[in-house]
Amino acid sequence: MLAAVLAILGPWIQTSAAQDGTIVFTPQWMAQAQFAGYYVAEAKGFYKDAGVDVRIEHPSATQPAMSRLRKNECQATTLQLCQAMEIVDGGIPLVNILQTSMNNGMVIVSARNRDPLTQTGAKVGIWSVGFGQLAICMSFQDKLDYEWIRFAQNMNLFVAGALDATLAMSYNEYYQLLQAGLDLPEEYVYRFCDHGYNVQEDGVYMTREYYREHPDQARRFAEASRRGWEWAAEHPEEALDIVMEYVDRDNIATNRVMQRLMLEEVLRLQVDRESRQREFRLRPDMVQKASHLMVENMMLGREITYEELIP
Amino acid sequence: MRRIIDYIRRKLSIRMSLWVVLFAAFIFITALSLMFFQAREAVSQEAVSRATQILDKTSLQVEGILNRVEVASTMTEWLVRQHPDNPDSMFVYSRGMLENNPEFYNCSIAFEPYYFKDRLYFSAYSKQDADTIRTIQGGNDTYQYFYMDWYLMAKLLDRPCWTEPYMDLDVPTGTSEMVSSYCKPIKDDDGNIVGVINTSLSLSWLSQTISAVKPYPNSYSIMTGRGGTYFVHPDPSKITRQTIFTQTLEHPDTAMVSLGHAMQRGEEGMKPMNLDGQECYVFYKPLGQTGCSMAIVCPKSDIFGSFDRLRRTIMAIVVVGLLLMLFLFIRFITRELSPLRQLAQEAETIASGKLDDELPDFQRVDEIGQLTRSFSNMQHSLVKYIDELKDTTAQKASMERDLHIASGIQMGMLPKDFPTGNDRDDVRIYASLTPAKDVGGDLFDFYFRDGKLFFCIGDVSGKGIPASLFMAVTRSVFRTVSAREDMPDRIMDSLNKTMADMNDTNMFVTLFIGALDLATGNMHYSNAGHDAPLLVGDGVGTLPCDPNIPVGFMPDWKYSLQHTRIYPGTAIFLFTDGLTEAEDASHNLFNRQRVTEVAKDVLARQEHEPRQFIARMTEAVHRFVGDADQSDDLTMMAIQFTNNASGQAS
Asked: By the CB < 8 Å criterion, does A249 face chain B?
């Protein structure tokens, strides 16, 4: 995985800003409520209020988010913390300018009513674009020896019975499975956050080089994005209206019910378990925990520190 | 409401009409319900049959083309396995697949990474492109086919299978098409999977075919995939975006979930549902082995629309008919019963006393005519009866007058002058007779002859006029016989013989005859079955009496004579059974014991002077009887011997 990411990113990273001073922001997935705060910030004019020109461009099948970043087609993207650490470890310094997630939302959903922890050697689905670092660590740690089956983007394999279990995001694929009519008893759903793997996920990253050249612009972009999220948390239905505009514009095969559930769950994951507040900060302890886990399981060549990630 | 009920209760015509109409309504409703039920079943069966035929036809169509895909894929796989080391031939095979089957959308023969040396991606991809077939190498960094469902599903399941329908984006042309792919694993000689043959079929034709299915004006069809996703739906916003379960996540709907699961399991059947507030029947059937299922949603209002219209029309006709029937019946019965009303008014007039009022002649031969005639007869009978009643009443008044006179005569026969202390110093007498009817059968008598007091008291069997006549005869014979006989037994014998001889009516009389020597106090007496008198003097005692039969039975009976001495101051209290058998309201008898107690009480108060004694006894018996009717004649006589010189005379 690390090699694959480096192969994609390494040689082609360019450190140039957008020519016209606009920040092109590319979320790592297609339009959905996972990025509601950014849509709100754009739609409600928060970016304009902050004096920063932002354009949201979603990735496509031929232009994934990381590809756009390395080609300097976008200046900011969202990454999960583990993904970002892999990239930094690969030699591309990144800066976390805004951390939205305070909790981990990854789950393992088991088919055929079995506890995932009892399914040693099971065929478990994992995203081909690489969101499953913690699951791989857990598989090593708990000696489950899962056979990872990389899939492109949906739950069809699992629904068709081709997998024993699958990784899913509690705000997305988990609800897709419910929407597919599956009954998912809680005892057969493994939530990483409840088993010592509560590592933060989504944050907004820029290359350190770009950040160094445009710190003020980056700060204003982060502030406006945060304002967008806070507004979304206070006005979830209006935020959902805005999300659905983006969803419809891109003709995404989803619906308002799924997006409402997703928004509720994403907002829930943004509240820190200890402080019970929406903190919007990277937690050093979580960075350290993720780094230790990944080094221990040889997914990082070295420890990545909190200081390496913050501005 | 109460007023309406009262009105109906007063109107026979309305009641009768209501009963008839209610009964008719019951018959109609029962018959129509049965008919509607049967008809509804037939309509329902017809709907099921129609929907099933459509589903079967569509399913057959689908299975036909699916079979061709599956057969073609099997043949291609055989060809691939003949030349597994020749990548170029794969392009020929994939192209050949589309050349031979123009209705197929595309075909990929894809291999595992690095199956061919140094080639991460190898996928011989052909696609129908207008009139030509475009064949290229399909895998690259942006399209890593070995992560795609169609590749992974066949590989993981290790068997051929159909993928969930998906939108296939053709990058060179920028067009997308909804397709489903048949994926068949390619295995080497060792049985290892080395690649997958993917043959896709555009579902546009299927979508159009299914969308066009419309057995009823407002019915529609849907198609769902393995995950419940809508691929055909009349609401375009739901296609590929929602599943059959989506709305149930926010608004639980067990019926919808049940339908979704049944369709996912590839079941065939029918379910009644409520969709968007509309009652519907949903008929569903799987589409071959694709994992997809098709359903036809038929609103009940469509299926039963004509039937419901017919039912409403019939019900309206029945209701209007019944109301009309009710109206006509009320009119008809009212008209038919109008003579009864007239008759009732006439009856009121007759009842008010106008007995000669003429009844109307309705000229009818039915029951009302009969009733009128019967009423007329009754009126005539009534007039006649009342005339007779007048006569009878007059006769009765005459009889009552006669009886009154007879009573006066009877009372006149009894002694009216009772000797008191002022009249005589040797005896005081008082008596009273209260008949139960106008005239009675009791008697008493006394008179003085030869220094003796002859007295009697009697009670004739029965009451009224016969008893009174018998009493009169008895009294007359007593006077006659006692005028020449001194001893009571002889008087009794003689009286008995006379009475028995002339007694054709078998009546009898209990009688006590006494003869008291007023000088000495010696008393001879004879008792013919009468209550023994009380002697009230120093104490209260009963005069001993021999048992003898009453007078009038046996002419030859010899009555015994008894004798006693009456001391001065002693009162002889004689009475009939009207005293001892006087009844109160509860039919309790006054009885002899009470008589004795009253006598003792009177004696204790020294009130046994005859008049006082009788008065006290009368008060006591009236108190006992209360408001109860007098059941028998009541006669009492008290004789107090007061000749203080009697001791010397004897």
From this structure: no
A161 touches chain B (CB under 8 A): yes
Q: Is B565 on the interface with A (CB under 8 A)?
A: no
User: ∠B122-B125-B128 over CA atoms, to 5°?
Assistant: 175
Interface mutation target, options B112, B121, B152, chain A, most CBs of A under 10 Å: B152
Is there a contact between A128 and B169 if contact means CB atoms under 8 Å apart? no
Are residues A24 and A75 in contact, defined by beta-carbon separation less than 8 angstroms?
A: yes
Q: Which residues of A touch B242 (CB under 8 A)?
A: 179, 255, 257
Give the pair of three-digit tokens for residue B199: 């043959």
Q: How far is CA A63 from the centre of its chain?
A: 17
% of chain A with per-residue pLDDT over 90? 71
Contact A264, A185 (CB under 8 A): no
Report in angstroms the alpha-carbon separations of B516 from B94, B490, B639: 165, 15, 10
Residue B261 near chain A (CB below 8 Å): yes
> How many A-B residue pairs are in contact by the CB < 8 A criterion?
94
For residue B461, what are the CA distances in angstroms to A311, B97, B440?
145, 140, 10
Assigned token pair, B504: 């054709």
Work out the burial of residue B591: count CB atoms within 10 Å of its CB; fewer than 13 is exposed, 13-18 middle, 19 or more buried.
middle
DSSP β-bridge partners for residue B232 = B223
How many C-beta neighbours within 10 Å does residue A227 have? 18
A37-86 tens-digit pLDDT: 999 999 999 999 999 999 999 987 667 787 788 888 899 999 999 999 99
Collapsed DSSP state (helix, strand, coil) of residue B605? coil
- Minimal Cβ distance to A151: which of B152, B240, B291: B152
**Whole-number average pLDDT of chain B:** 88
Q: Which of A129, A180, A139, A135 is nearest to A157 (CA)?
A: A180
pLDDT tens for each residue of B398-457: 888 888 888 788 788 888 889 888 888 889 999 998 888 777 788 999 999 889 999 999
- Among candidates A97, A87, A89, which has minimal Cα distance to A66? A87
Strand duo A123-127 + A165-169: pairing: parallel
Q: Is B26 exposed, middle or buried (0-12, 13-18, 19+ CB in 10 A)?
A: exposed
Helix B610-625 to helix B591-604 angle, to the nearest 10 degrees? 140
Q: Name the helix (H) or strand (E) containing B248.
A: helix B246-250
Strand (E) or helix (H) holding B175:
strand B175-187
**CB contact B170 to A (< 8 Å):** no
CA dist B89 and B79 (Å) reads: 9
ipTM of the complex: 0.87
pLDDT, tens only, B557-615: 999 999 999 999 899 999 999 899 998 888 889 999 999 999 999 889 888 889 999 99
Question: Is A180 in contact with B148 (Cβ distance < 8 A)?
Answer: no
Token reading at B67? 């079979």
Tens-place pLDDT, residues A176-225? 999 999 988 888 899 999 998 999 999 999 999 999 999 999 999 999 99
Point out the residue among A157, A159, A254 whose CB comes nearest to the CB of B152.
Answer: A157
DSSP SS3 for A22: coil
Nearest to B260 among A128, A152, A181 (CB): A181
Nearest CA in chain A to B154: A162
Candidate from A57-71, A226-240, A265-279, B312-326 with smallest mean pLDDT:
A57-71
Backbone angles phi, psi at A189, to 5 degrees: -115, 120
Helical (H) or strand (E) element with A151: strand A147-151
User: Mind telling me how many Å the CA of B45 is from chain A's nearest CA?
Assistant: 31
Residue A146, C-beta contacts closer than 8 angstroms, at least 6 positions apart: A119, A121, A122, A123, A124, A135, A139, A165
